[in-house]
């Protein structure tokens, strides 16, 4: 095998041997680039995680587990997160139900919903949304060429051992095999024609399973709409702090009772009177301060005139007329 550089920049280069396939009956070497994980926003697991780039398109967690097991032994590898999985997790931060419900209902639920939900409510919501999702049609994803992954190891010592193992691979020129016999039996669905045939079969989902997903979606959608309608009804019947009743979309509802309207009007008048009194007191304060300034100015002028008069008297007492 041709030798190459062991490092490039911050990356250590890990060559892996890809066995021949029926579609390409030649043994090839693929190069993985590995460095310590250093994201822009630090996390608690950065010290024991690795950042990989140029991962093969058929990569799975089982592939990486087998690869790192061949490098540093079993028990060191914990998990792997691929680039497309991180993007999917970010895009799923908003549930499909939130994306599907009308904008008016979404605004009401966001503005007037509970700020903190209990754990049981969150778990129930997750179960409902999982039931509302359509079944997947692919048994195994393919990665984008040159994509990345983050591998989490058992401890920081394991990270150092990985880099030592990569250096050892370059010295002995014995490259680990990608997707060989080290993969667990039945853990990785096959690719090729079997993969495409399975996709074609899953594209025509079971009617009962599909109907269950649609029913769960409809039930959850209707419940969200009902929650928004209850919030809108409450806003129509409750005057705000200024005594006004919010006009919301969704048709007319029964008006507030006469006692509630009179109470709201009384509170509004009391607030108006209080504001008027505060404004009047504010003007009184201005007038009082202005009078104090005028008095201080008059006292200052009087003191200046008195000093001038005293100076004139002193000067007149020293005057001696000519004889």
TrEMBL record:
Source organism, top-level taxon: Eukaryota
Biological process terms in GO annotation: ribosomal small subunit assembly; rRNA processing
InterPro entries: RRM_Rrp7, RRP7, RRP7_C
GO cellular component, one term: UTP-C complex
Biased composition (Basic and acidic residues): 118-131, 259-272
Sequence segments annotated as region (Disordered): 103-136, 242-272
PANTHER family on file: RIBOSOMAL RNA PROCESSING PROTEIN 7-RELATED, RIBOSOMAL RNA-PROCESSING PROTEIN 7 HOMOLOG A-RELATED
Family statement: Belongs to the RRP7 family.
Name of the protein in its database record: Ribosomal RNA-processing protein 7-domain-containing protein
Organism: Chaetomium fimeti
């Amino acid at each position: 095998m041709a030798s190459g550089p062991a490092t490039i920049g911050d990356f250590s280069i890990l060559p892996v041997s890809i066995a021949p396939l029926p579609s390409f009956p030649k043994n090839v070497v693929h190069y993985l680039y590995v460095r310590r994980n250093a994201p822009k926003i630090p996390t608690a697991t950065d010290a024991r995680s690795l950042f990989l780039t140029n991962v093969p398109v058929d990569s799975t967690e089982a592939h990486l587990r087998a690869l790192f097991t061949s490098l540093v032994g079993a028990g060191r590898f914990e998990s792997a997160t691929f680039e497309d999985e991180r993007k999917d997790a970010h895009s799923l931060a908003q549930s499909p139900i939130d994306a599907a419900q009308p904008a008016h209902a979404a605004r009401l639920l966001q503005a007037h919903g509970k700020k903190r939900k209990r754990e049981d409510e969150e778990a129930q919501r997750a179960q409902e949304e999982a039931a509302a999702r359509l079944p997947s049609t692919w048994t195994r994803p393919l990665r984008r060429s040159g994509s990345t992954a983050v591998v989490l190891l058992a401890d920081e010592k394991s990270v150092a051992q990985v880099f030592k193992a990569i250096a050892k691979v370059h010295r002995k020129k014995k490259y680990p095999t990608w997707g060989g016999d080290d993969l667990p039996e039945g853990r990785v669905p096959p690719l090729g024609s079997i993969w495409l045939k399975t996709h074609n079969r899953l594209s025509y989902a079971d009617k009962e399973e599909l109907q269950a997903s649609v029913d769960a979606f409809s039930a959850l959608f209707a419940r969200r709409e009902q929650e928004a309608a209850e919030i809108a009804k409450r806003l129509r019947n409750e005057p705000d702090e200024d005594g006004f009743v919010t006009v919301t979309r969704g048709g007319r509802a029964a008006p507030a009772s006469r006692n509630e309207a009179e109470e709201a009007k009384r509170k509004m008048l009391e607030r108006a009177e209080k504001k008027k009194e505060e404004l009047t007191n504010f003007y009184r304060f201005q007038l009082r301060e202005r009078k104090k300034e005028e008095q201080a100015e008059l006292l200052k002028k009087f003191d200046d005139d008195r000093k001038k008069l005293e100076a004139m008297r002193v000067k007149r007492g020293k005057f001696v007329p000519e004889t």
